Amino acid sequence: MTSGPRGLAWALAALLASGCATAGAPPAADRPAAPGAEKNPYPSTYRPLPSGTTLIRGATVLTGTGTQLDGADVLIQDGRIAAVEEGLAAPEGAEVIDAAGRWVTPGLIDVHSHLGVYPSPSISATSDGNEATSPVASRVWAEHSVWPQDPGFPRALAGGVTALHALPGSANLIGGRGVTLKNVPSRTVQGMKFPGAPYTLKMACGENPKRVYGRRNQAPSTRMGNVAGYRQAFLDAAEYKRNRDRAERGGESGGRGGGGRAGGREGGRDLGMETLVGVLDGEILVQMHCYRAEEMAVILDMAREMGFGVTAFHHAVEAYKIADLLAKEDVCGAMWADWWGFKLEAFDGVRENIALVDAAGGCAIVHSDSERGIQRLNQEAAKAMAAGNRAGLYVTRAEAIRWVTANPAKAIGIAGETGTLEPGKAADVVIWSGDPFSVYAHADRVYVDGAPVYDRTDAALQPVTDFELGILPAGEEE
Asked: Does domain 49-107+419-464 have CATH number 2.30.40.10?
């Protein structure tokens, strides 16, 4: 068996990134706890790979802001977008890329992925996405299941995906925290964590939780049981928060420690409650798996009652029925281009769903929920754009690219850093061989923070995870 140069390049890049992150740092046991460590005990150790100055010249540029620029230049300096306009002069020492006939976009972002928690190979030993042992599992964090060696990461990178949001599954009413990752080589999940990205909370309504627990003769077994479960969990969290705040003021904790039915411990920390209180405090963004329109409306009412907001509904097959409500409430809809009918709550889907949410002024997102779909997010966006245009909604490419760049960045709280090609933003950039809404287009080169991490013409920048090293293609012998 042989590893080959591509695998070595990936492994060495991971080592370099990790080394940059830890050089000169004392052992973890010797470091004092950072202020607020209880809220972020697993901080990002990501450090950008080395980058230079790059001028991408003469491309068709979709900025992610709703603008298309023809024959424009993109200047990358110090890992950031320095300028996007026509006729830029190349700084001394810059790499100049002739992109005439090619297209440039922000790096794609998948707001709903299970890479790392449901990795390939997909077998029971690697299935780590659902802690389906209780309906409320707010105590668990997806990052503690993420396997950085999942071969899906480099596959997604070859499709232009520079960041992704890895979530627990949807067996639970409250499934645990999600994590936003840079799609870069790393030996640890901390080395992939997007610096400064807020934590998220995965919740699920509808068929999944009531089916999983109803079969066990547990609650919930109905949709009304689902809503009662959310309400009780957040009532318990509100009590935990009151006790915490009272203790911080020097008062008595009293009560039942805020745990109640959600499993609190008198006088001590409760991991699940800490996450739910983070939602109530506005620090953790709620990402809600929900298909049907009337259920989404109920969830919005429930969230208002409990004192928190919903950032995005995921899957949202019937979002088109309440597109105006989602726009009014500023709640994103993360949707498939055309998945429907695989269960009853997915039956009433329409291909125009994404375009209709967009047309109503809402935050429309194309997501994958698939280790294969994430490799072709641009094509999924193209299908949704085409469906909207057939219906007379006249979606432009400049508008549709936001569904896989700016809007997902908004939904996971990283829009200030990435998702658009604007000066000062991170240089997460894709150079496409042609129109990215064509099935014939390929990602020619991909940059993360200005560093080239994938190149279709350079085998050393076509990464392979360590897990794949030594695996020979079918038919080859040692």
From this structure: yes
User: Reduced to 3 states, what is the DSSP secondary structure of residue 192?
Assistant: coil
Residue 70 phi/psi, 5° resolution? -95, 135
DSSP state of 89: P
Q: Is 267 left (phi over 0), alpha (psi -120 to 50) or beta?
A: left
Kindly state which CATH superfamily the domain 108-418 is placed in. Answer: Metal-dependent hydrolases (3.20.20.140)
CA distance 301 to 431: 43
Give residue-wise pLDDT tens across range 9-30.
445 555 555 444 333 333 333 3
Nearest Cα to Cα of residue 398 among 106, 62, 114: 62
Three-state DSSP state, 57: strand
Cis peptide before 121 (omega within 30 of 0): yes
Pick from 434, 436, 435, 432: nearest CA to 404: 436
Write the DSSP symbol of residue 344: G
pLDDT, one tens digit per residue, over 249-305 is 886 544 444 333 333 445 588 999 999 999 999 999 999 999 999 999 999 999 999
What's the whole-model pTM score? 0.91
